[in-house]
């Protein structure tokens, strides 16, 4: 006889999953997909297609029979080239055989790392707002997210005293994202050095999310924290090809860090995704040394879009934004409007067919902001700004959203 307890609705769902909220970005994307006339400024995905040469290399890899299992950590020749890249561009020396692994995108690397490091009850410090994937990964590992609010008066650059104020005897890890999603902030060297000193003094491990490292503007410098003295041993550096090569759907990234951690992450990957797709590994391997021209072109386009949007949005009364120095986002301040971020983003979508992301989908400190992605042609950005201006005026006229 089946017990009454077993008849409860959804009795089979694990408790850990109930802590995880669905992505606000995906929710907006699903809503917008039903609106044919919407301008999509919500999903953080480049509008460029993969470069033709990279697509050709992928086809060649398939034709040459790269359709079998690879090592769990990825092809060694690929990891060797990645090690060369990390030494030349980031100033960090890694053993490609023992200290680097290829992953199914950066998100896979971050998840595997958190599962390998965080015990139930461990505290993990993170920027707020932040990429939506960090907090769920912490919760799934039984960890406790501890958020450090980013402030516009400091150009959304995390402040060392704010991090220090959050450290307790339970602090295990800090997730550091620069260039930053969703604000575009690039943390300067002097702050990175202070964070490194703080990590060393308090025995804190760092996950350095450097996915947007190639998308930095205005002469700003990208500093990999693992390159600083004493930090390689306590840092996992995470990269991805999704944004720079415009291949979000290919799901290819990599992580470099201490041997004990990489070993554990590979063990998890063995029983999770097994390994990244073989032909994609080979295609990216051969394209790496040829990619500069494409990346430079993409950067120039983003700079022109950014400059247009910053000037145009700041010309609209009662909203404002600062100029981001990295990534491809603008974090628009709407605090003078008589509505929440969620209400304005929904109003903008339903009434004016512009898709944006409410700041609160990215963290509590995102209230009063919406995230705008610079991932459509400038002609669409021009139309979007006209619609945003009309929406702002209507909200102000009505004293809130309808």
Write the layout of secondary structure elements.
Layout: H1 24-32, E1 39-40, H2 52-63, H3 76-90, E2 100-103, H4 105-117, E3 123-128, H5 134-140, E4 144-149, H6 160-166, E5 171-177, H7 189-202, E6 205-209, E7 235-240, E8 253-256, H8 259-270, H9 278-287, H10 292-314, E9 329-333, H11 341-352, E10 354-355, E11 357-358, E12 369-373, H12 378-398
Parallel strand pairs: 1-10, 3-4, 3-5, 5-6, 6-7
Antiparallel strand pairs: 2-8, 7-8, 9-12, 11-12
Q: What's the order of the H and E elements?
A: HEHHEHEHEHEHEEEHHHEHEEEH
Unreliable runs:
none
Task: Work out the radius of gyration.
Answer: 22 Å
Largest sheet: 7 strands, mixed
**Relative helix content:** 25-40%
- Number of folding domains? 2
Class based on secondary structure composition and strand pairing: alpha/beta
Regarding quaternary structure, how should these chains be classified? single chain
CATH superfamily of the largest domain: Type I PLP-dependent aspartate aminotransferase-like (Major domain)
How large is the count of helical segments?
Answer: 12
Total number of strands: 12
The top-level CATH class of the largest domain is Alpha Beta
What would the principal axes of the Cα set say about the shape?
A: globular
Write the CATH fold name of the largest domain: Aspartate Aminotransferase, domain 2
Mean pLDDT: 94
Explain how this protein is built.
This protein is of the alpha/beta class. The chain contains 12 helices and 12 strands. It has 2 domains: 152 residues, Aspartate Aminotransferase, domain 1 (Alpha-Beta Complex), CATH 3.90.1150; 238 residues, 3-Layer(aba) Sandwich (Aspartate Aminotransferase, domain 2), CATH 3.40.640. Helix 7 links the parallel strand 5 and strand 6. Helix 4 packs across helix 8 and helix 10 runs parallel beside helix 12. The chain is 39% helix and 13% strand. The relative contact order is 0.16. It is globular and about 60 Å long. The strands form 3 sheets. A 7-stranded mixed beta sheet has the order 2-8-7-6-5-3-4, sandwiched between helices. A 3-stranded antiparallel beta sheet has the order 9-12-11. The mean pLDDT is 94.
